[in-house]
Inverse folding.
């Protein structure tokens, strides 16, 4: 899933890392070799 806006929160389903977007640059966030999941 591509990053779309600041403030979005993503989580790695494997290790539990969480990321909050501070600057949108496009692309997809990946951790542990898998795409990170947008938290709703």
């Amino acid at each position: 899933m591509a990053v779309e806006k600041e403030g979005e929160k993503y989580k790695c389903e494997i290790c539990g890392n969480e990321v909050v977007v501070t600057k949108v640059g496009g692309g997809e966030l990946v951790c542990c070799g898998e795409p990170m999941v947008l938290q709703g």
Q: What stands out?
A: DSSP finds no helices and five strands in the chain. The chain has a mean pLDDT of 96. The CA atoms of residues 15 and 37 lie 12 Å apart. The longest strand covers residues 9-11.
